[in-house]
Amino acid sequence: MKFYVSTPIYYVNDRPHIGHVYTTTIADIFARYHRLCGDDVFFLTGTDEHAAKVVDSAAQHGLTAQQWADQNAQAFQDTFQKLGIANDDFIRTSQPRHKDKVQQYVGELMKTGDVYLGEYEGWYDAGQEEYLTESKAKEYDYKSPFNGKPLVRKKEKNYFFKLSRYAEPLLKLLADQPDFVQPDIRRNEVANRIREGLNDVPISRTGGGDWGIKVPGDEQHVIYVWIDALINYLSTVDTPDRIKYWPANVHLIAKDILWFHAVIWPAMLLALKRPLPRQVYAHSFWIAEGQKMSKSLGNFVDLEKIDHYVGKYGLDAFRYFLASNGPLGTNDSDFAEAKFVEVYNANLANDLGNLVNRSLSMVQRYRGEVPAATGSQLRPEAEKMIAAYRDCMAQLDLTGALEHLRRYITRANQYVEENAPWKLAKDPTQAGKLNDVLYDLAESVRLISILITPVMPTIAGNIRAQLGGTAGVVPSMEEARWGLLAAGTKLGTIAPLFPKLDQAKK
Predict the structure, then answer these.
(1) CA distance 258 to 185
(2) Residue 47 in this model has a pLDDT that exceeds 70
(3) Cα(278)–Cα(248) distance, rounded to whole angstroms?
(4) How does strand 218-223 pair with strand 214-215?
(5) Whole-structure pTM value
(6) List of residues 6+ apart from 384 with CB closer than 8 A
(7) Which of 196, 232, 280, 402 is the most exposed place for a label (fewest CB within 10 A)?
């Protein structure tokens, strides 16, 4: 099977921050999981470069728009590489391969009449480069809902997309395929707004020089940045060797750009008579210490703070915190260092690290190798956990999958206390039971190492090495079956995975 996951493409008017890193890390985790499942995976991220404010920011820094875009696009690529993101491609909207496709698709829409030249007057949000309806402008007191700056009353000739033509098809789509927009609350938001009525949307702007993609046949108009950006998901794979990946399985985005992805983009695809993506998944936001993140408040998790967390706690621990405590659902999540340390100590040091270290140390001490077993107490619970984990991952419920895994790790630690192998080892008549208990624990560790691979690939590899595996060999989900750890397996060097942290010394 194929699996195509995308992140939004990110504005190049600034450097990456926790929002960009979170979405991309979550997409990376799902891509890694599907690779473990043996799927043919395509994972796309990239940068959105043709915004008018890129020209303004570049001028303020004494650079051309292309130089400014190059600089910041490289910052995104460097950041993702440093954070171990395994994307298959990085699209930049200033690349010819993208620009040519944008002109092709817009040209197709002009021929069908879905794009036409008209005049528009309305309230313009310069920061977001979008028009707001009169009702929305009034709701926000004629200020941008994103940066608080006054909206501008603007009148200009534009090319328009006939979004109004697609209200009923979109409502039918949401009714027939409720998973198209997730979580459910986001789908309901979209449906309610569509029912209020859809207006045709401007897709071009005049002025701004040559920074942008020209409307086919009209050099005076540059294609609006959001239309240009949305097309990346198709333009990147619309080649003979990649078209097999379309339609995308999931566009992973943040909730603030839901309208563009859940309404304008599918309407464009309907107009182009192209298959629609299977799902648009809109997660919530990170907040900091209970407050909205902002640079002015000094609570913004920027690259320097991300480097701090990765340097102090390790990349895998950072990824685990994002995955297990992030805003994947409908509620915003708090990014606080005290919470990070609490999760690190409880879930990683005390639970996972403790289970692996004590289990393998006892196998080494009491048997010297993985013993043969005649029965298992943990197998039914392990098999139930694996099934639940896989069900959650199939539904993009990463938090749920990790919670099932965490509960099993807690259960395995309880199993150690219940059976007290150190006592069994002193009684020769309990040799058979000790073998069963030690095998249960070693096999549990092996299975856990597979299931944490998408989230903590380095730690997972470390565990497999301690189990006697070959360094760098990544397992498959086919191996997540009880009983594949061979009796007689010699263990590797056993060492702690997560040093416990003193919360007082953050």
Answers:
(1) 12
(2) yes
(3) 6
(4) antiparallel
(5) 0.93
(6) none
(7) 196
